[in-house]
Amino acid sequence: MIPIEHVIGLSLALFTVGLVGALVRRNLIVIMMSIELMLNAVNLALVGFNRVWAVGAMGQGRLDGQIFVLMIIAVAAAEVAVGLGIVVSLVRNRDSVNIEEANLLRW
Amino acid sequence: MEVSALLFYAFASLALISAVAMVAFVRHAVAGVLSLTVTMVSLAGIFVLLEAHLVAAIQIMVYAGAILVLILFVIMLLNLREDDFGRVRPGRATLKLAGSVLAVCAFALLVQQLRDVMPAQGPAAEALPAGFGGYRAMGIALYTDYVVPVETVGLLLLAAIVGAVILAKRRID
Amino acid sequence: MLFFLVVLAKALFILAVGVAALAPIITWIERKQSAVMQDRIGANRADIGGVTVIGLFHPIADVLKLLTKEDVVPRGANRALHMMAPVISAVPAIAAFAVIPFGGVYELAGGDLTLVASDADWGLLYILAIGSLATYGGVIAGWSSNSNWALLGGMRCTAQMISYEVTMGLSLVGVFMVFGTLKLTDMGVAQDSILWIFGVPLPNWGIFLQPLGFLLFLTCVMAENKRPPFDLPEAESELVAGYFTEYSGMRFGLFYMSEFIEVIVISALVTAIFLGGWSIPYLPTEVIIGTVGGWFGEGAGTIICMLLHVATFFLKVLFMIWVQMLIRWSFPRFRYDQVMSLCWKGILPLSIANIFATALVMLLRGSV
Known about the structure:
The structure holds 3 protein chains of 3 kinds.
Chain A: H1 4-24, H2 28-52, H3 64-94
Chain B: H1 3-24, H2 29-49, H3 53-77, H4 90-117, H5 135-144, H6 147-168
Helix pairs in contact in B: 1-2, 2-3
Chain C: H1 2-37, H2 58-68, H3 79-95, E1 105-108, E2 111-114, H4 123-133, H5 135-144, H6 148-179, H7 184-190, E3 194-197, E4 200-203, H8 206-209, H9 211-224, H10 249-274, H11 285-296, H12 298-328, H13 336-365
Helix pairs in contact in C: 1-10, 1-12, 2-10, 3-5, 3-10, 5-6, 6-9, 6-13, 9-10, 9-13, 10-12, 11-12
């Protein structure tokens, strides 16, 4: 048996690493990858909790958490596709993936 | 210690180390993507240990096999070599440090709250219904109870495809 | 404990026969078959002590040559990634052998022996996942070589492989629907019977149940492996050697070998899914064990049946390898936009139509 606190603890640790990466790094692609890491941490938490409450009131298996995870993976794929399209247009216009260069709308 | 617990700790440490490596590889974007791939595959291993077999296979197929390859492809297409963005401006450095410290404090707070409210363990592996998390049970659930979200996600993916094609098109003058 | 030893034995058998023995033989097959098809003699000069055996020593000569060549890493290339890429390319090809059954289920000495290294419930899903990981080899090789040709080859490789992964999965959905399982052993057992179509008895093979699916899957999986006519990523007349360009010595040997090992994996997969796997047509397992067991006794009957099945499997694999070589040496290379439009505008709608047609036929036959 895997202790469930350790699974959720790992999920929190990965989420924090992704959060720090999204805050600290300046490369736009690395920021996108940190966001993907945060989404994965959430997936891990959902699957962990699904394992804990796996059996419903009438003894049937409950797969809600895993289905939610599938939806999150699909949405993450869509988000990466559009996000990389934005990165490609940004690089074409500003010739750099440094987010500090994309500052036309700052005050 | 049982085999599954040992495997879990192995995969968990691998995932955490590669995640930190991804954030810490400042000069090499491609090495960062490969570290993230290692994280994804380790997470897929943990999903298998948590009886989520279809989710694990889809994690490898979609996340590690398509999304990260797409990110690699864009790095190659834009020919992004090692990034040399210059020194961090002084004000920004303090802000980044403060942000990181706050994130770690938030983590510590969440872990402490976690210890108070964690639920009981959950059923043992033998008590689970047969085929739990396998493709058959998930397929039935997806196409009977959750058919509306599945179709909606299909529409969302279509919108994303159209959007990505338009965004990346060269302007036709 | 016994379980682990049995799995180890099966894995070693697969590695010894599938990888170490068949892969060099395929290099010989490629040379000799292309020579016969092109009305020439082919390579037959390699000899040991003056004895040339129709060129069968050439694979040994090749391996020796590649092992002793100088290993060059181009200047400015990323050393670590350059060294890792051949390994990333070879591992998924070899790992795919884990779920391929080279025999059925036999009752021996009180237990059941299943001749497959890993009898997981989701065998084909594992193959699709491993296939998606194989993309990284070409990508990393192309990028880390610091060379124009390699970069172009790597980009073509990425786009081609991720496009054909999608259609590979879709063309298999019809097969899943008909057999009702993802386990390759169960598919083999299901193909061990007779199918009656309009009064004609045919073996219950996947190719008769899903002819369109077979053609689509064969196309997709050959494109995934970057074999000609889909070999734009390594087009010899256009890109020097594509993403292989900056590789020499045993690293190139590893890329080359992984491509041939994937040829074997493709043949084994197509055999297991569409050509009846290990089963002999019109002779179900019970009939063989019954008749041979009547002559020699039950245990010997099972063992002889097992050997017959393994031999049948390898004969079918060799046939599929021959077919792939035939296709390789007959067709000119596709242009790149033709490759992409074939996938997205040709194979994708056809595989979805295949799913609908299969569902309709199953509904009408009442066997849903």
